[in-house]
Design goal:
There is one protein chain. This protein is mostly beta strands. Helices cover 3% and strands 38% of the residues. A hairpin with a 6-residue loop joins strand 6 and strand 7. It is globular, with a radius of gyration of 13 Å.
């Protein structure tokens, strides 16, 4: 089967999700924030990776990513990870190496800029 979940053009690996939402905070051209929220069907262990791919034609803003997973701002559980990595050959893919376990049934979220 397919190992990614999608939401109108956005994809998240691994796919074992209860929910997956992408919420743009503005709707204009140029760099802008999106909020990604999800909850897992199964636990995801410490040191695993999350990979989030934006739609074709949308890239993560590597010069001004402003990534945050602050619980108060996201109204979701924070994600503790190494700094996000944007693949230079696939700028629409953001990778997070987890420094915590993601637990089943909790909603996690982050905000970052896309172009």
């Amino acid at each position: 089967g397919v190992d990614v979940a999608n939401f109108p053009g956005y994809f998240l690996f691994p796919e074992q999700l209860e929910s997956f939402n992408v919420l743009p905070q503005q709707r204009y051209r140029g760099s802008q924030y999106v909020v990604v929220k999800f909850s897992m069907k199964f636990n995801v262990p410490f040191d695993d990776f999350l990979k989030i791919s934006a739609p074709v034609g949308v890239v993560w803003d590597s010069s001004n990513l402003e990534f945050t997973s602050n619980q108060a701002e996201m109204d979701a559980q924070p994600i503790v990870s190494d700094p996000p990595v944007i693949d230079p050959s696939r700028r629409n893919r953001l990778t997070l190496r987890l420094r915590m376990n993601l637990l089943q049934g909790f909603e996690y979220g982050f905000r970052a800029r896309v172009i």
